[in-house]
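**Backbone geometry record:**
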Amino acid sequence: MTVQANQGAIDTSSERVALERRFEDIGWGVLLVAIGTIWLVPEKHIPHGSWLIAAGLILLGLNAVRFFRGIRMSGFSLVVGILALTAGLGEFFGVGVPLFPIALIVIGLCSLVKPMLEKDRTLTDADHFRCCGPQSTRGANHV
């Protein structure tokens, strides 16, 4: 009975990983097609910042889908999505958004908040280079 329970857990885990991979592939595909399409349209027909707004909304939408499906959200794409949306809206409304200082603040906040949220977890050297934790459960060789 224990072997069957373990096999069920493995099947569920592999299905979750496959679903996560599918969402990631679809998200990147939509992102690249949207940005490529926007860049093909002459600038006079597209408002400034449109590609950044699209990128931000797609990345945030992908994380929303992950959240509602019970899959761990990607801290990296969440932060990049917020930054892209902020920069795009700033360009759209003609407001100069200091993106680099904002990015530094967000990365710093992630570094401060993460240890408080994960008290029991032992950090590896690789975790110090990621904002808001590991990005995927696909394996150690995934970069």
In short: The mean pLDDT is 80. The first helix runs from residue 2 to 40. The CA atoms of residues 24 and 58 lie 11 Å apart. The radius of gyration is 18 Å.
